[in-house]
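Re-run with default settings, no changes from the original entry. Doing this only to confirm the output is reproducible before filing.
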Amino acid sequence: MKQKGFIFDLDGVIVDTAKYHYLAWKKLANELGFEFTEEQNELFKGVSRKRCLEILLEIGKVTATQAQFDYWMVEKNEDYLSYIEKMDASEILPDVPRVLKFLKQHRAPIALGSASKNARPILEKVGLLSYFDHIVDGNSVTKAKPDPEVFLIAADLLGVAPKHCVVFEDALAGIEAANRAQMVSVGIGDATVLTGARHCFANFTEMDNAFLQGLLQPATG
């Protein structure tokens, strides 16, 4: 019988920082002389900062030298950091603390698997860092989701085989990454979008403790 491991994405699963990313990208787009809509921001979900800037420049038909590109990358991140500096526990998405407490009470190993390079300070600001045994973030990986690297590193740190890990994700790329790693994928969001997820819930309020208890059942093999 093998213990299960649990891996959580950050943005859109534990907290909703997407709005802050959007504000920072919109500010940069406006500086560069074009509009950036919330609909266009959907293209950025689960995507690295470098790729986001590439897409933004394509939208605005802006060409950049490497020096300009690097400068805008830093500028966007500094604006984003100024927004998240004010984050507190009120930013935690509904019922996330209940789920984390339930898993912790059952001594389940828990990791964060996020593309965010600011994951640790965000978890500190909202008061959830202590629930996580390991943090795997954008500083720890070289390949973006849907590559499974972030989740495979997390599984290794937890000491749990990938097939015995459960991943909570809100992005299609993250669900694909979990599936590629042969992990149990649990989508948090729209089931019509997260079509590859093994299970899907609109949010954690729909996920009762009986379902969590089922996930905790030791695996065989």
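DSSP finds nine helices and six strands in the chain. The beta strands are 5-8, 110-113, 134-136, 165-169, 184-188, 199-201.
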